[in-house]
Design brief:
InterPro entries: IRAK1BP1 (IPR030312), SIMPL/DUF541 (IPR007497). This protein is α+β, with helices and mostly antiparallel strands and 241 residues long. The protein is built from 4 helices and 9 strands, in the order βββαββαββαβαβ.
Length: 241
């Protein structure tokens, strides 16, 4: 028999640490319930955490010379070396953003050239390798800023779907167990509602740090989802009430 009940979850991104309520899709043509039908409503929760999947850091190269050409040449030589190091470690050009700034200092009559590279990594091992290499090789005219870790939109979207699905699975298993105890048969879901999704940054909640202690300092997000589901229930064949 075709199952006309199709629960489907759509999770909309919200700012971190903000609770949200999102109603999931209700089948547009729910079956007409016969008189005296019985339903079972259960709730389920799930708690997951996800570490950041992206990191970026800035590299600032500056030079001050008597002419602009000299300043540009000095910066370009260092930038070429840095770009070569990045590519040797598998960094793609699309993950490198470059910004140039040329300034003429009126007081000193010097020309200043600054170029900043903003580099994005998804492989944190490569990030550490590049960071150590640049700190060892570059001179005082090159400044390497500390890495900033964050979650990409794709990572957050997948993570929110995972925690919602886990809460839905827990609620469904609870309904199965209850029907088993009561001698009933669990029918199809009639309504699925994600009632709450709460997110907290790693480090904000001390309890989270204690439970998910990790040797890495990469930040993470803790998410707790609560889902309620209304099921149709039926008597088992041969059961007498």
């Amino acid at each position: 028999m075709e199952n006309r009940s199709r629960p489907f979850a759509t999770v909309v991104p919200t700012p971190e640490g903000v609770k949200k309520r999102k109603r999931l899709e209700v089948p547009p043509q729910s079956p007409q319930l016969p008189p005296g039908c019985r339903v079972l409503r259960v709730s389920g929760t799930a708690e997951l955490h996800e570490f950041a999947d992206r990191a970026s850091f800035g590299i600032l190269v500056s030079s001050e010379k008597k002419t602009m050409d000299e300043a540009i040449t000095s910066v370009s030589r260092r930038i070429d070396y840095i770009l070569q190091c990045l590519r040797q470690h598998g960094v793609k050009d699309k993950d490198i953003q470059k910004y140039d700034l040329a300034i003429r200092e009126e007081e000193t009559q010097q020309y200043s050239m600054q170029t900043e590279l903003n580099v994005t990594f998804s492989d944190f091992t490569k990030l550490d390798e590049v960071d150590r290499l640049l700190l060892d090789k570059v001179d005082d005219n090159v400044k390497v800023h500390s890495a900033r870790y964050y979650h990409s939109n794709e990572c957050l979207s997948l993570f929110r779907r995972r925690v919602c699905a886990a809460a839905t699975e827990n609620a469904t298993q609870k309904a199965r167990d209850m029907c088993q105890v009561m001698g009933q048969t669990l029918g199809p879901p009639l309504l699925v509602v994600e009632e709450e999704l709460e997110e907290k940054l790693h480090g904000v909640n001390d309890e989270f740090v204690h439970r998910y202690d990790n040797i890495t300092s990469i930040p993470a997000i803790l998410a707790v989802s609560r889902v309620s589901i209304t099921f149709l229930i039926r008597d088992r064949p041969g059961r007498q009430l």
